[in-house]
Design a protein that fits this description.
single chain; about 180 residues; alpha+beta; Outer Surface Protein A, domain 3; three-stranded antiparallel sheet
């Protein structure tokens, strides 16, 4: 049996989980998330925890077992604590700015790049450290918005300039060897 799938999802104080068939609604202090799962997977609420069970040991059911439990756990953590990804900007003259809710990036193009956050996402910009925090309750959406911002100017291997995740290692390459002689 799946080691992830068989673990119960503990529900913290202040979080309410409602299960209607294969639809799960999670409400907490930070917001509300809902998702519909495959009907073959059984989701039940027992003793203040969510239990996920599968009907058989078919490979697809085994995969869905752990996935369903992980998604429900991410929903519970999202509405109680929230998620955050931090991006670092490297490069001379490269900088982020906030313009209302929008993020404006000056990253070496002839024009500034404007990024508007989708519903449920907010940006926290530290202009002195050149860091951008993407915050929200939906883990999937936070990761996608952070990846879209990184895609504006991915880090290049020669000088390391660009937008990278905080702590991301960028493998550096040697440039052209000078002409000897």
């Amino acid at each position: 049996m799946s080691r992830i799938g068989r673990m119960p999802v503990e529900i913290p104080e202040g979080v309410k989980v409602t299960i209607q068939g294969s639809r799960v609604v999670v409400e907490g202090p930070k917001g509300r998330l809902e998702r519909t799962f495959r009907p073959e997977i059984s989701i039940q609420l027992k003793d203040g925890a969510v239990i996920v069970e599968r009907p058989s040991d078919a490979p697809q059911m085994r995969a869905l077992h752990g996935l369903t439990r992980a998604l429900i756990h991410n929903m519970v953590v999202g509405v109680s604590q929230g998620f955050e990804k931090t991006l670092q900007i490297e490069g001379v003259g490269y900088r982020p700015e906030e313009d209302g809710r929008d993020l404006v990036l000056h990253v070496g193009y002839s024009h500034p790049v404007r990024v508007s956050p989708p519903e449920g996402i907010e940006f926290d910009v530290d202009t002195r450290a050149r860091r951008i925090k993407v915050k929200g309750i939906d883990k999937e959406l936070v990761g996608q918005v952070a990846a879209d911002i990184r895609k504006v100017r991915p880090p290049e291997p020669y000088k390391g300039k660009g937008i990278r995740y905080l702590g991301e290692y960028v493998r550096r390459k040697a440039g052209k060897a000078g002409k000897v002689g």
